[in-house]
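Ex. 9. Protein: ChrR-like cupin domain-containing protein.
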Amino acid sequence: MNSDYEKRALINTDKLIWEKSKYENVFKKILAIKDNQETALIKLDNSSVLNKNSLINSVEIFVLEGIYVNEYGEFEKGTYLKLSKEDEAQVSSKNTCVIFRKTNHFSNNEQVIINTQKTNWLEGQGNLEVMPLSDQTALVKWPENERFLAHKHWGGEEIFVLSGTFMDEYGAYVKNTWLRSPHLSEHFPFVKEETIIFVKTGHI
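Predicted structure tokens for ChrR-like cupin domain-containing protein:
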């Protein structure tokens, strides 16, 4: 398990097998776990309840497929949620839902819910477009053949590739690839096709 935050981590999540949880029709692909913090993909099939006895201290979610349901409402593909608490006994889905989720990674009372499919992109550096989601978290859209300056990650960087292929001098990372780079790591990113990434910085 990717618990050493001082090392680079890379997973093509499409190559992982969905692991059954103890609850019916709930499956996980765990990407990293340390103490009570977890980063994972979770799949909720029909008639599933995520956890009947758990209250998460904090949760950060990006809905990848389907409709995610919790005590705050129903959220379609492309919705970002950052909640200081969530009652997992009220988490379910309509049909099949897949989410990227981080639990217990922050301790403030921040609550953010953004439907990224209905939110405008902002101009970023170079030809990039950016959609801020919360502190140090954003979607970044790379146009075809865009190259970025070589840079270091103060506090590290975490990326989940939502579409296209993200690239740097170390390799090419297709859709559904998860990357984590440690504090002061450095790379020179670029793309050949339009690519959208979910990115967090400074939290490692």
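Check your answer against this statement. The CA atoms of residues 37 and 144 lie 35 Å apart.
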